[in-house]
Write a structure and sequence with these properties.
The protein is α+β, with helices and mostly antiparallel strands. Helix content is 46%, strand content 14%. It has two domains: 1-93, Winged helix-like DNA-binding domain superfamily/Winged helix DNA-binding domain (Arc Repressor Mutant, subunit A, Orthogonal Bundle), CATH 1.10.10.10; 96-155, Dna Ligase, domain 1. The chain has a three-stranded mixed beta sheet, with no helix packed on it. A two-stranded antiparallel ribbon has the order 1-2.
């Protein structure tokens, strides 16, 4: 399902580009819009293919990588590193609403929404530090892998 990029998000990016001396190009805003329309975590290659295949939007990988870094720097995208996978990204507006459990055997990633955990993190005071957002990763075994490993007597 495609969403329309809010004026607030667009303006935040435009202001960041202006303040830091970067040009406001059609390509950069197209990348921002596609990144915010992604339903799940994505890597740069997935975003590249989606823009090319679905939108017919030809863009260099260098422009894509550079723009992703700008979006992370201006706090519109969050970069995740789930184990050995390539860096994954998601819109900041989605990232603040869940945490992740990652299977160390098969690499499956699941998002968990828990208001108790969210409130505990948001209400935690850390001296000499102002939290802007949080990301919580819990590594372990998913039930499928745990069952398979038990059956093979590897657990």
């Amino acid at each position: 399902m495609e969403t329309t990029l809010s004026a607030e998000i667009r303006n935040q990016f435009a202001d960041y580009l202006l303040r830091n001396g970067f040009r406001q190009t059609q390509e950069r805003f197209a990348i921002l819009e596609q990144a915010y329309n992604m339903e799940e975590h994505f890597d740069v290659e997935t975003l590249y293919k989606k823009m090319l295949d679905e939108k017919g939007f030809h863009i260099s990988r260098a422009t894509l990588y550079n723009t992703i870094e700008l979006l992370v720097a201006c706090r519109l995208l969050v970069r995740h590193q789930f184990g050995t996978l390539a860096a994954q990204y998601e819109a900041r507006t989605k990232a603040d609403k869940h945490f992740h459990v990652i299977c160390t055997h098969c690499g499956a990633i699941r998002e968990i929404k828990d208001d108790n955990v969210r409130n505990a993190v948001l209400n935690k005071r850390i001296t000499k530090f102002t939290a802007e957002y949080y990301s919580l990763y819990i590594f372990g075994l998913c039930s499928k892998c745990k069952y398979a490993l038990k059956r093979k007597n590897q657990l």
